[in-house]
Amino acid sequence: MTGWTVLAGCFLLGFFHRFAPATSAEALSADLGAGGAALGALAAWHFWMYTVAQIPAGMLVDRYGTRWCVAVGSLVTATGSFALASAQSVVVASVGPVLTGVGLSVVFVGIMKFNAAWFRPESYGLVTGVTMLLATCGAIIAGSPTAWLLERYSWREVFAVAAVAGVVLSLAVAVVVRNRPPHSLVEAGVPSGGARAGLHTALRRRELWPLLLATVGTNSTFYAFAGLWGVPLLTETRNLSNTAAAVYTTAALAVYGVGCLAIGVWSDRVGRRKPFLLATSGMAVAGWVGLAVLPWDSGWQGIGLYALVGAAASQVTVSFAALKESVPAHIAATALAVLNAGVFAASAALQPLFGLVVDSGSGWSWALALMVGIAVVGLVAVRYSRETWCRPLPTASDRETAIST
Q1: Model-level pTM greater than 0.85?
Q2: Cβ distance 328 to 393 under 8 Å?
Q3: How would DSSP label each residue in 200-220?
Q4: DSSP secondary structure letters along 253-282
Q5: Using CA atoms, how far apart are residues 384 and 397, in angstroms rounded to an integer?
Q6: Which among 26, 65, 251, 399 is placed 20 to 30 Å from 291, CA to CA?
Q7: Residues 82-106: pLDDT tens digits?
């Protein structure tokens, strides 16, 4: 489908902007004179703005539709890429991640709404998994391929080309995307009392918080690491080149992308959620402990540990599914937005905090120990999550039918 393909391209480009700072960290630091903490803060702007904009983006898409919201969001992302490419200081460069974070928040909500409108409900999990897999290709492009480009071109040229691609995709969205299939009579409902009431109800659901903490332990740690610190760790502690180090984050992101699709399909077939939440949270703890304390080398051992934390992050597919099945349908979208916002807020906080620990002289092991602690909290939180058996909560009409029969 042409519309979905264009939207997936926008989402892919957004993931490139999310993870490109890790591969470009050395060049950005040298050109802009940024230390570890400043570089962490620069990259974190994307996560902070993406987080803050999540719920407003959802409200905009619900009101105006996917087509124009994503077209504008992609244009905002392109503007951010241009701003970063032309920046001469860290302060000015921060405008880039601010705008890419805002733009991608609209793209994310828009493509998820498009998937719900254009594909059958029973295919939604599969379509979402494929969407996440393709989006992860953008993160993979931000790894080794970008490192290869940085050996031949400046980081400014790379981000300028990404900006041009964003403008082209924005125009394509406006031309080919439609909000709903022809003759569709289905419209998304809103909670009684409006969006604010729906948000208040979602925040009060106890099912939300264990899943949020679990996903922070797997995904927030991985996003913060792969998005910035995964490459510098290897260049500074294992004396690898920037290009060689990027292979590790690329491998981790590839495992993450494939895992997002595989774990969703597997969980659906088994008809369980909680065992997958436990397994992936345990994998996260094991991966971070290995990176922090084991004497791993820069060969297959290192790649294996990077891949392990990437595989653990594929938990997000099951987390979204479990939350959607744990709350009433009329607040499911809001609850998912809160979960996603919380995960990225934690990522935004972790990036500069990780850099501060490294800059303080404590060393990389203590910074990685921070990830261990957060992963352990996530593993404990899974114990308090509920098993949904892959079935949504019954609606009022479902209960009435059951009573009448």
Answers
A1: no
A2: yes
A3: HHHHT-TTHHHHHHHHIIIII
A4: HHHHHHHHHHHHHHHHHHT-SHHHHHHHHH
A5: 29
A6: 26
A7: 999 988 888 888 899 999 999 998 8
